[in-house]
């Protein structure tokens, strides 16, 4: 997987620079699975990584081909999206592909307007996934039960013509990220690697703006004083000591990114669509098999694709105990496994919830 970065590395080397890909202690790729683990195996082996080298902080893993089974993978051409969803509003369209967090996004573009402009500009949709699009994207079966559906934070659809680059940052929640079209290259650093310090170039943008005009209008916390294309190791020497792992996320793949793991993401110059979902960590909780038993009692196989994004509510916040989320009990799977033994007689969705 590291071979895909060679061109970028050589380009930087020719210019006398060392990019973020050329420093540190590369550990190779993360785990790659061709079969999805069960909800309980995912909890023990990856979310908690019990007895493993990442115990307590989670272990990233790539699920090869897991998004190929979703309707979005086959359907989401520009023509289809414009015809069926042209009027839906994208609530965040960035105006830069290399993220700096200093420019305000558009907040009211329709899908049609975005599609007419994205492939000839630096536009990059990072909108909350519209409910309508959520009808064609499924939760991975490993989240069907275990308690995860009670802690669904938010979902974002990333859409651009490629050549995007993120800042180095971390997320507060666990993340399932699925690639619908295109490819993304990732670097991961452990959550306990101490990157969130001034000595590593970490900033709180709002506070930084009070003393540095370069951060005016910037937002959030991230590595804001490091140039990923030309890393200053004299100023930030510890970056050359950090272990890191890489991942190539191809169209049809999904990945689990544990909460608080630092990461950098870039994409080649090609049409790129991905959908991710942040959810609350169960790392400190016991695995809750209540929903597993409920699904099995209804005749479902928990390894099937059962729950669409549109079937679920989002908005869980760890500080708000009343912000729990839920998903409607399905009436049939996506059509990839056995069908349930029982269905509501009227063919409608059951009022039961997970």
From TrEMBL:
SUPFAM superfamilies: Clavaminate synthase-like. Residues 118-296 form the JmjC domain. PROSITE patterns: JMJC (PS51184). Gene3D superfamilies: Cupin. Residues 317-354 are annotated as: Disordered. InterPro entries: Cupin_8, JmjC_dom. This is JmjC domain-containing protein. Pfam families: Cupin_8. It comes from Polarella glacialis.
